[in-house]
Please model this.
Amino acid sequence: MSYSKEIFPNGFTLLAETKRGYPVASMGFWLKSGSNRESTENQGVSHLIEHMLFKGTSRWSQKEIALKIERLGGSLDAYTAKDHCAYYQSLLNNRLEEGYDLLEELVFRPSFPEEEFESEKRVVVEEIREYLDNPLDLLSNEFHSFFYPNSPLGLPIAGTEERVLSFDRNAVLDTYRRIYTPANLVMTLCGDVDLAKFRRFLLEKMESWPAPRLLPPPLRPPKPARGFLFLPEKRGQRWSQSYVHLAWPLPAFQERRRYRLSILSHIVGGGFSSRLFQRLREEMGLAYSLSSFLGSYNRYGFFGIFAALNPTNLFPFCKALKEELNRLCQEGLQDEEVETARLNYESAVILGMEGTSSRMKVLFHNDFLLGHYRSPKQTLNTIRSITREELETEMRHLLKPEKMAFALLGRKTRENKIKELWND
Model:
């Protein structure tokens, strides 16, 4: 396995990892901008652009694009996130150049046909309505709006129904042209690839690319909020469960800290053997869905806990959750649970080496989030070197009630009692 990174004169970046003997190659175009570049006036535009790239290009209609995707075999997918957008595929090695042609056409030559633009706005509206019908998606959107006030990170990725329907084709096309510039794009490639040959092929293709443009200015780091957000059911809604989301802000991500937090998350609530899962679900039966996780964006994020439970269990759950978190911070961790979490993390890294698709994604995220390449061996060595004492220091610094944001979606409950519990 060998790694290569090259930044071309137009600012475009190629990240490649060659893996000999693999019949499948994976590649992706990654835009270093997401909904975090939007405002309340154009929220949802990045997501709509992602949809429109599949609706026609200078060479192909929407149907022709769909046929080409299927005839290539393999898989092609796309998504819009808070801080980036992705277009990626996996396919047989001998069809690599065909696959590249398809991705390049979508990313650099969309035609934004008028009739498709109007119909796709309605499709996105249906997607938004689906989110609003899903309590988990609804809670996530409302939580981000509360946790990141006065920041694009707080805006829903898909936007709002009213805003999407108001979009003008020319204005959206102008946004696309401003953001989809070579210097704002990264290509990742992983597989049994003749890299020198592919580089020559890529240089020829670049001759028809749009001229480089200035990158958008750097974003200001958001200022996360603290406190409580209660979201009672609205007319027409009837949730059978209550949904709880807690978060502690992470204003900066250093490389080693990211690995520490991943291990810590597994110990706290990320695994079946975790403290919260064993105590609150298995022993006390207070919740069915329960997990801790790392919400990470470029340079910042949060440590989160999520649970779905019967509304009658809400206060006992919050009380037991606070007690277990306090116990963790006061008594510390056990060597056995630290070793279990490390082994689980190591296994995930090793299993991720088996597929070109997972490695292709890791290439981008390492470069985007950490700023440099990390081989699987380097990652494993770092994971193995993290000590129990490091994890305990991190945990006690992080899990403080005064730093916490608490969001609840569900039936009306005793808000003051919950606030008093956490503030006590």
